[in-house]
Model the fold of this input.
Amino acid sequence: MDLSYGEAAEAFRKEVRGFIKAAWQPGELRGAELKDHIRAFRRAAIEQGYLYRSVPKRYGGSEQPVDVIRAQVIREEFGRARAPMEVGGNGVNMTVPTLLEKGTEEQRELFIRPTIEGDYIWGQGYSEPGSGSDLASVRTKAELSADGSKWIVNGQKIWTSQGMQATHMFMLVRTEPDAPKHDGITYLLMDLNQPGVTRRPIRQMTGEQGSHTFCEFFFDNAEAPVSWQVGERGQGWYVSRTTLKHERASIGSADGLGSQFRKLVELAQEMGRIGDPLVRDRLAEIEGRVLSHRYTSFRLFSCAAAGEDPGAVPLLMKLLLTEIGHDIALLAQDLIGEEGMTEPLGAGGRGPRGPRGPNKWLDQIMGSLGNSIAGGASNIQRNIIGERGLGLPRDLAMSAEK
Amino acid sequence: MHFHLTAEQVAIQDAVRGTLGECWGMERLHAFADGEADFDAESWQALMALGIGALALPEAEGGAGLGLLDAALVCEVAGEAAAPGPLIGQIVAALAVAQCQDAATRALLPGIASGETVATIALDSNLVQCARTAQLFLADDGAGGLCLIAAGEGVEIEAVSATDRSRPVSRVTFGSAKTYPLFVAGDPMVQRIRDAALVLIAADALGGAQHCTDLSVEYAKTREQFGQPIGRFQGLKHQLAHMMLDVEPARAQVWYAAYGWDAGLPDATRAAAMAKAHLCEVYTRTTRAAIAAHGGIGYTWEYGLNYWFRRSVHNRAWLGSPAQHRARAAQLAGW
Ligand SMILES: Cc1cc2nc3c(=O)[nH]c(=O)nc-3n(C[C@H](O)[C@H](O)[C@H](O)COP(=O)(O)OP(=O)(O)OC[C@H]3O[C@@H](n4cnc5c(N)ncnc54)[C@H](O)[C@@H]3O)c2cc1C
Done:
């Protein structure tokens, strides 16, 4: 085993560092000037082949060969310098790879460049009031207009993250009501700024409301051109399963978890509890799990770099992260003690952010609960691990599922 | 960057698995567990014929030039099989002697490396695995250093009823026995040797926990109740999923601790403590979950899960409990 990235990667790291040093000079820039500088920096970074590596040049990407080690070095160096990386969000993480794999030339031309430049923000229109874990039961329906040129959409989507900012949505809609449930769904792109679309923010348990929160969307004869349908009509379920492997393996979530754990240790220090043997024991016990997660992400990264199949291990990562987040939340709650009886000023986007004391941990304490729900509830993760990871027989209720 | 097993490492594990599979079917394990012996010469020789005793020794010492990582992979397979024999003591003693300067001690190396001389660990406790057979005891020299104590005069051995039937302990008292010096107090090798033992115990725990998970999953696929395989019931399915969630990520923690030891990383001692603590917790949870997942058959002697359960009890207490190692890790982190 060897955790160094090798000489070639270190030479590449120098090159990336040199680039950032020259090109990223935010200094005292503010407002529009800062925005312009960020845009210019991203353009230059694309030019160098550092950002949007899996996106072809003709759509504004840098079209680089797959190389997970280089991609990781870039992430590390950009992170270290706090330089702007890819714009992120659903658009870059989901829409762009889906279009690259399943989209038409027209769709790629139309959507990829504005998405990676941050002009289009995408909401994920999957969940509905009646369809969560059982996603293939979506009922929002789309029917062809009389002239066959448009999909007319009626129904409701809910829990859409970043919904207030979203300019567009990728959504699953029912187009063949008589087909078996997985075969009657179409994957559709929609412009959200049109009269048939109404959005409403939903206040979250964290207190967050307004633009920071998730939304519900009502579609009342909303329209999308037929040419904005991705993949075949009725094949939307399978389009939504598209997962691209492009340099996805990253040590990113492990670094995030590691720094969250370090902050937990700092919290114990700040609260004067670090000498308490019980606190030390709980910290070290949690760290046992944090390290397992960390070294397993090294393992996945290593497999990806070597082009080897990591088996069932990736199926574990979401639930593992979720469960460790709960452990951290429980200890944080004990550590902040009475401070937990008050919320920090500006929590949940209410009013200006004030000074934040130990009670800022309420963000993590509550936020960790979102991880057990969003992106596939924990019981669904357990089913996936049991059925796909261990090969146990499928649930009878779901044995018809695909 | 390489942080998964190579084809050679997988091949080593397969070879050891094959040999131990031939030696230790359930019937043999039952016979051994109910017998008087604390050692089985035949399986020991089969294992040593693979070169296990010298695996982690430098080539200049007649070894295979591999690392603690490779030794850990072997111990993992021994843990899977619940194989009798003081394998961890043997490997650690070989590592210690190979690094020692004393000529008389070094003369022991060929015997240990070949497995002809059986060595066991007698640190921190007078309950010692396979003590009635071992010719050498890796022990504290009384002043915080390490030495090897030769069996025979000055070594008193009292039989006890051992919980772990695969590696039975006896109670050992050292008098004025023949000793071979290894490292004096303050020599960094003292800690390194202890760390190596912790990593190998963690590896044994990993193998055991994986085996218990595998048995439970297989059983859940074949055992039927209410007209269907019990593995279809979501309650049980989720329990099994959690066993995997506990065991599989912990594997990389064992790798890291062993790699850290081989590479001499600055956090190697802490990584060994964390791995010992975490893997022994995982082993305890997994053996308990496995027995629960099996129902009545899991609670029997005959089915054999109890051998792994007993081994988990032994591993957990051996060379310090998880809580003790967590306290050390807290200290080492400067908390
Ligand atoms: C913070 C956050 C952000 C989100 N962002 C988005 C977004 O941007 N776009 C989007 O489309 N959706 C989003 N969601 C919605 C999310 O995907 C759903 O909430 C999730 O899939 C669960 O669906 P549900 O809420 O209907 O719960 P249900 O499916 O009704 O589940 C309720 C409970 O039943 C359990 N359960 C359900 N089925 C089974 C089963 N087969 N076996 C065992 N237990 C079961 C679940 O584990 C859960 O505990 C977001 C949710 C949250 C919390």
